[in-house]
Amino acid sequence: MSDDRAARIGLALRLAERAGVLSKHYFEDGTLSVQTKRDGTPVTEADREIEQTMRDAVAAHFPHDGFVGEEFPDDDGDSGYTWIVDPIDGTKSFVRGVPLYANLIALQEGDEIVFGIINMPSAGIVVHAERGKGCFRNGAPVRVSDRTTLDGAYVMATWLEDWEPEVVGDLRTQGVTVRTWGDAFGYAMVACGFADAVVDYTTQPYDLAPMPVIIEEAGGRFSSLDGRRVFNGGNGIASNGLIHEALRTYVTAPLAGHQDRRGVRL
Question: Are 93 and 183 in contact (CB under 8 A)?
């Protein structure tokens, strides 16, 4: 690993910790102000403060890096590194007092995500991975599950409004248990081996940027629903790798006639 990458990963770890402190403070304070953005999704002062804090720190330490976030316009860079962040993934959970929200940070070097972190401060869970170094939960190495069939598999979903009813029914006939309240929590559970897969039909790049390195370093597979190894394809599926193609066949079956998925993940 280059010194340049190591320095950036060190900063990413510190920023995740800082984001956790800020978001947990707002989460527990009880006076959170919620606004609605033009796309109808909620945003809070916590989202904006956390992202601005990250942007300021990156600009101070690595002024030529790019930065992509949810709340402010993208910053182009020419260093070869880009930071991709979601200050609070799961804002709807956050504003309702559900502790399964997360702070997401990914570091992209060239075209490759080389570091990713899911920080869930109110749940006490931090999952992070560096390319070639493994995946860790709260400092201990983790691996995906070893389930080889859909029968008995646990599949996470951020929300079922995006799922065609026949998909859930078909999976149930295969012995699959579908559980909701996914967001980043679902990907963390797959990386740690507690769930076997997670499916998202509607995403933004900052929702999924940390997931390729986290899932792959835990021994699993991440792709878009059409099978590409991309995090910016508008959707995503992560699994232990062993059931990936079998599950993908079921969850993509209705897409041929429904190309325009509606909804925005928060």
Answer: yes
